[in-house]
Amino acid sequence: MEALLKQINEAYEAFRTDSALQLEKNNKAAGTRARKASLELEKLMKEFRKVSLEASKA
Predict the structure, then answer these.
(1) Of 43, 41, 45, 48, which Cα lies nearest the Cα of 19?
(2) pLDDT tens digits, the chain, 58 residues: what are they?
């Protein structure tokens, strides 16, 4: 679970950085990277939910 949380934090940092670049500097490539990171975050959050539910049952 720790590795998953580390991946979530890294993906969120990438999203935060790129979304800020898109917003502040109108960087279109950063917007594309932010959207890609958001999809990765979605996948990781679903995995976190699955792992968290399994841990709470144990």
Answers:
(1) 41
(2) 999 999 999 999 999 999 999 999 999 999 999 999 999 999 999 999 999 999 999 7
Can you give the pTM of this predicted structure? 0.88
Instruction: Return d(Cα 20, Cα 42) in angstroms, integer.
Output: 19
- Residue 58, H or E segment: none
Question: In the chain, what are the domain boundaries?
Answer: 2-57
Q: Which two tokens stand for residue 33?
A: 């990277």
CA geometry: angle 30, 33, 39, nearest 5 deg:
145
Distance CA 11, CA 31 (A): 14
Contact 8, 45 (CB under 8 A): yes
